[in-house]
């Protein structure tokens, strides 16, 4: 969103935009997860005999599965850093890569990385994990420089969906404008995620099927993930 | 069809993975040991390694820490080196995968431990090249500081010169000997010595002989169905003691037997004991007494179930029963051998199941054992299993020993050694209490006899006698103390014998403690000059002190040697207000003159000494408080060689120093002695008869008439047939009262006057001799009664 666009907005419109960005996505396409009975870790018991500190780098706190047992979400405690991490597993890579984990009771969303990992912040474990769902991408596009976006994965309803992209520069960095076209009538894209590389991921809330991203000076292949 | 698909959960690898992981965790929690846990984790890694990494990542990460923790310190046994190689590979894979989570040092520790046990197991198998390679890899670990460098150095490990080692392998009769020779050949210069020592240490558990433990390979039962899973080597230990008379039969107890199948194991052990009893009975006609046997295994976290334990139980029970039955002969079994098999009541072995046998052969094969003892019926199939293993590890030298009976074990010198205790130690062991009691009795009797001899020989210990000596006798160089019943109480040794007639003794309470001390003196019998000594003894014969009179003393012209005889000694309370007594000693030189008057206190300390230039008479001594000042004066009479006439000395016990006054004649003037501190010194005149007929006169007696307070002094003047004496009477201040001759003297003088031998005045002078008495007043001789004016009291 450029400065010129901002100037045209009224104060009320700014407030609406900001609240839209902070508001939970409320994904339509989401899979509810249920707590899965898991084996109690034997490690504290084992090391208890030797009197040594635990050698379990990651301790499993709990695991959640989808009703069809296709999704498995493992909540792990990193003993080294002391933080909670989530590892999402699914037989299909498009289901665990860049998938939103939604902690519904907290109305927080966490996006997994390429390997299905997400770092959870300091959350109150019991309350936060009371109701969890995952929202995998509905469509994935690949965009190479000087090329058109190519659909590499899409849910059945979005097979016809296309993206119009445009690069332009308003400052030192290039800007990418993405327009969603040919969406089914009853479909609403709640989030558009642009993956620049393993390190950098940009999340946008589309406004009238339009999103803008400020890109780094150099980039290679981009991936754009759509979430309903 | 529809029903089928609806009713079943669709197959899903993710949940299956989770289930597999949970199963692994469950198995880990009940695993018997660390080796088992490592195997379970490794199996999980292996079974999931083909799945996409994104799926397995968190599971692997969860187990990686524990895998490294366990493999860094576990001590695997009976493990094929291939399995250890597999663990090494897993370690590498995990480290490469989670390099940011696992410390490099952890990897090195794990690899170090795995390489060490790889080497140990290769040595067990006789694969020297592989073992050395593993040791060198372990050695190289220390130098690597990064994972790339580590990989590089491990790959660069060179192979040992094969020719030498091959010759060694061909030559050795056992894997242990081959290893020992290799270790000796490598010496201590190649940096492997520490590891080789450690391997040697580990291997030592498969060496030596023992009569209370032996190795047995047991099949472990695992899982819900308690299926035999694998075989491990256990050390079976046995302690045996004879049961009490009331029990009358063998009792068995296992200290750490799992609850599962306990009853069967106890029944089997009872049969094994019967078998152990049968052999000595049948072979040697020995009836071993019933015993309490306690068996224990080296590990407790295992479940054993089977019958192949009965051979080791019977074998071990046999020797333990012999030991506890206090037999001279018993057996020790080689720890290079493991025993397995089933025995019947007659000690004959019976075939065991081939499945279990295979596992047992495998366990023995991958250990440091040299022999595996099995039932003879199993020998053929056991060889088949062994050859299968030998196909992979041809240098392993494991010998299978098939036995048909327990006695074949005993007869085989490779696995059993007969030990015969030396007769003495056997007797001590079996008849120990009896011998001990006998020795104690002999010792007791010896002590009593020795005590009786000692008491008999030493009168001091004759407690039944009256312990009050009343007389001292001298016999040779000992003093003998007798009681009133003339029984000998004690003896006292002298350095030289006393002359018997010189013995003087007094029984006085010197220190005022109510108990008498014994003062005894005598002259030593000597071919040279005589000397004397005074002893003060307790009535028990203990010496309190001793005193020898005299010292070397000089006149201006002569010197007297230190040879003095005690003429007389007296003990008296010179201070009338004191309870303590002092001892007065009159000793004269062996040449009769000079004479020393010494005064000692009750503890034998010298209080004073006075030197007289002449002889003092033995009976011319009076101790009496003449001047009534509370101190008893010493009045002694004798003769003065300087003046050649009789003299009387009166000494106050408070001042006894110096020497008698002289005439100025250097022959009689003592050097180094001050003037005497005598109270009175009197010279009694010589009669004419004495002057003409004798050398000098001298005092023979000093008497006190207490009622008259008068002293009588007797001098000897002349001797014809009897002594001719002069009598002088003095008051207590030594004023002369009277002098008169004895009738014998008057008669003698008269006869000589008539014969004109003596002048006429010789008779008349006898009445007036008292006027010629001289007194020393401290400065000069005077003819009137005078006290030593130099005295201050």
Beta-strand residue percentage of chain B: 25-35%
Helical amount of chain B: 25-40%
Q: Tell me the strand order in the biggest sheet of chain A.
A: 6-5-8-1-2-3-4-7
- Binned, the helix content of chain A reads 10-25%
What average pLDDT do the residues of chain B reach? 88
Largest sheet of chain B: 6 strands, antiparallel
Radius of gyration of chain B: 57 Å
Element string of chain A (H = helix, E = strand): HHEHEEEHEEEHEEEEEEEEE
Content-based structural category of chain A: mainly beta
Strand tally of chain B is 35
- Which percent band covers the strand fraction of chain A? 35-45%
The major pleated sheet of chain A works out as: 8 strands, antiparallel
Number of helices of chain A: 5
Describe the model.
The complex is a heterodimer of chains A (228) and B (793). Chain A is mainly β and 228 residues long. Chain A has helices spanning 3-8, 11-22, 43-50, 93-96, 125-128, and strands at 31-36, 58-66, 72-78, 84-89, 100-103, 108-111, 117-119, 132-135, 139-143, 150-154, 162-169, 174-181, 191-195, 201-204, 210-214, 222-227. Residues 44-53 of chain A have low confidence and may be disordered. Chain B is an alpha+beta fold and 793 residues long.
């Amino acid at each position: 969103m450029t400065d010129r666009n901002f100037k045209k907005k009224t104060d009320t419109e700014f407030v609406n935009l900001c609240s839209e960005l902070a508001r939970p996505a409320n994904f339509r396409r989401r899979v509810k997860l249920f707590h899965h009975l898991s084996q109690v870790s034997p490690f504290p018991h084992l090391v208890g005999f030797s009197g040594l500190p635990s050698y379990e780098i990651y301790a499993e706190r709990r695991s959640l599965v989808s009703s069809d047992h296709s999704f498995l979400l493992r909540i792990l405690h990193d003993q080294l850093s002391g933080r909670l991490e989530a590892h999402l597993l699914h037989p299909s890579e498009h289901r665990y890569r860049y998938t939103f984990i939604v902690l519904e009771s907290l109305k927080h969303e966490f996006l997994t990385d390429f390997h299905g990992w997400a770092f959870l912040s300091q959350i109150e474990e019991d309350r936060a994990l009371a109701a969890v769902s995952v929202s995998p991408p509905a469509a994935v596009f690949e965009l190479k420089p000087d090329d058109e976006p190519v659909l590499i994965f899409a849910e059945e309803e979005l097979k016809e969906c296309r993206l119009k992209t445009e690069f332009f520069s308003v400052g030192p960095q290039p800007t990418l404008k993405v327009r969603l076209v040919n969406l089914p009538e009853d479909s609403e894209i709640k989030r558009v995620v642009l993956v620049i590389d393993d390190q950098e991921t940009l999340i946008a809330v589309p406004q009238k099927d339009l999103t803008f991203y400020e890109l780094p000076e150099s980039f290679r292949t981009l991936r754009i993930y759509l979430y309903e | 069809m529809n029903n089928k698909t609806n009713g079943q959960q669709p197959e899903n690898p993710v949940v299956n993975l989770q289930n597999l992981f949970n199963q692994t965790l469950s198995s880990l929690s009940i695993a018997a040991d660390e080796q088992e846990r490592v195997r379970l984790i490794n199996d999980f890694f292996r079974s999931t390694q083909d799945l996409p990494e994104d799926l397995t990542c968190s599971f692997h990460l969860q187990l990686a820490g524990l895998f490294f923790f366990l493999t860094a310190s576990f001590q695997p046994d009976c493990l094929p080196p291939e399995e250890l190689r597999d663990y090494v590979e897993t370690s590498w894979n995990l480290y490469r995968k989670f390099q940011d989570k696992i410390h490099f040092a952890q990897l090195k520790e794990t690899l170090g431990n795995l390489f060490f046990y790889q080497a140990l197991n290769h040595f067990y198998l006789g694969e020297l090249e592989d073992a050395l390679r593993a040791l060198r890899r372990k050695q190289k670990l220390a130098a690597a500081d990064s994972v790339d460098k580590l990989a590089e150095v491990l790959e660069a490990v060179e192979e040992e010169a094969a020719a030498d080692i091959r010759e060694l392998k061909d030559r050795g009769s056992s894997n242990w000997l081959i290893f020992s020779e290799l270790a000796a050949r490598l010496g201590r210069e190649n940096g492997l010595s520490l590891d080789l020592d450690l391997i040697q240490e580990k291997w030592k558990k498969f060496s030596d002989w023992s009569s209370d433990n032996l190795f047995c390979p047991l099949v472990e039962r695992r899982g819900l169905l308690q299926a035999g899973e694998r075989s491990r080597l256990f050390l079976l230990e046995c302690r045996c003691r004879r049961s009490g008379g009331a029990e009358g039969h063998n009792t068995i107890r296992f200290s750490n037997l799992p609850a599962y199948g306990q009853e069967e194991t106890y029944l089997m052990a009872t049969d094994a004991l019967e078998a152990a009893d049968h052999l000595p009975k049948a072979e040697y006609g020995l009836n071993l007494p019933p015993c309490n046997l306690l068996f224990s295994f080296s590990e407790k976290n295992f479940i054993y179930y089977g019958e192949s334990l009965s051979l080791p139980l019977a074998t071990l029970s046999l020797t333990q029963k012999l030991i506890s039955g206090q037999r001279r002969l018993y057996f020790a079994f080689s720890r290079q051998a493991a025993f397995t098999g089933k025995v019947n009541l007659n000690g004959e072995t019976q075939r065991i199941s081939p499945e279990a046998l295979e596992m047992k052969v495998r366990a023995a094969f991958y250990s440091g054992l040299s022999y595996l003892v099995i039932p003879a019926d199993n020998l053929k199939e056991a060889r088949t299993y062994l050859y299968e293993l030998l196909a992979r590890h041809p240098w392993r030298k494991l010998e299978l020993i098939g036995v048909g009976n327990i006695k074949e074990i005993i007869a085989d010198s490779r696995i059993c050694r007969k030990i015969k205790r030396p007769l003495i130690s056997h007797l001590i062991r079996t008849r120990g209490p009896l011998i001990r009691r006998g020795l104690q009795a002999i010792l007791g009797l010896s002590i009593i006899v020795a005590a009786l001899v000692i008491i008999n020989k030493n009168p001091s210990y004759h407690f039944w006698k009256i312990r009050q000596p009343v007389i001292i006798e001298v016999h040779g160089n000992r003093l003998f103390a007798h009681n009133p019943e003339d029984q000998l109480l004690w003896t006292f040794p002298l350095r030289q014998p006393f002359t018997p007639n010189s013995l003087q003794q007094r029984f006085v309470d010197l220190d005022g403690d109510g108990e008498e001390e014994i003062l005894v003196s005598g002259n030593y019998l000597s071919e040279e000059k005589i000397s004397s000594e005074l002893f003060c003894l307790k009535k028990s014969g203990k010496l309190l002190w001793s005193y020898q009179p005299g010292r070397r003393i000089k006149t201006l012209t002569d010197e007297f040697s230190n040879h003095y005889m005690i003429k007389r000694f007296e003990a008296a309370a010179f201070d009338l207000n004191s309870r303590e007594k002092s001892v007065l000693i009159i000793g004269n030189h062996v040449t009769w003159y000079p004479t020393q008057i010494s005064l000692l206190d009750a503890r034998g300390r010298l209080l004073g000494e006075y030197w007289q230039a002449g002889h003092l008479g033995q009976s011319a001594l009076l101790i009496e408080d003449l001047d009534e000042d509370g101190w008893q004066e010493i009045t002694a009479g004798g003769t003065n060689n300087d003046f050649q006439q009789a003299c009387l000395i009166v000494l106050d016990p408070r001042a006894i120093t110096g020497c008698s006054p002289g005439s100025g004649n250097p022959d009689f003037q003592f050097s180094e002695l001050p003037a005497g501190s005598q109270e009175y010194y009197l010279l009694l005149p010589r009669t004419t008869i004495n002057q003409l007929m004798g050398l000098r006169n001298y005092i023979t007696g000093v008497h006190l008439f207490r009622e008259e307070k008068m002293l009588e002094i007797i001098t000897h003047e002349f001797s014809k047939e009897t002594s001719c004496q002069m009598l002088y009477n003095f008051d207590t201040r030594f004023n002369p009262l009277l002098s008169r001759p004895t009738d014998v003297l008057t008669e003698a003088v008269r006869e000589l006057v008539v014969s004109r031998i003596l002048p006429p005045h010789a008779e008349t002078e006898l009445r007036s001799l008292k006027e010629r008495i001289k007194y020393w007043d401290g400065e000069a001789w005077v003819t009137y009664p005078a006290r030593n004016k130099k005295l201050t009291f």
